[in-house]
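Hello,

Our lab assistant flagged a job as stuck in the queue for most of the afternoon. It eventually completed. Since we weren't sure the result was trustworthy after the delay, we are filing this so someone can double-check. Below is the sequence as submitted and the structure that was eventually returned. Let us know if re-running is recommended.
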Amino acid sequence: MSTDSLPKCPACHEDMTYPDGENFVCAQCGHEWPMAVAVEEETGLVVKDANGNLLADGDTVTLIKDLKVKGSSTTLKVGTKIKGIRLVSGDHEVDCKTEAGNMLLKACFLKKA
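-- returned structure --
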């Protein structure tokens, strides 16, 4: 990540920020905030799971309900883990790979693992 693409501090609005693990830190005032919040502000895409947790690209999620696959006799079972999700805009917000193939799923049937 280049210094040009780092966000300004939401507390003091200075551009003296740096990444530290999963957070951004302001060298000026010491304020810390999660990188996921900065990505949401950039893209405008906010997706929450069934428990209200924010989802991000690359997260691992678990199904909270059996889901029938449309056009097939296959059912995705409750408790199935899905790794490496990708968030997309639209009615079905989560693009992922399952044992039944590539799918678009609604976030309300998922929980962050």
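-- support follow-up --
The delay was a queue issue, not a problem with the job. The result is valid. The domain at 61-112 is CATH 2.30.30.40 (SH3 type barrels.). The helical segments are 35-43.
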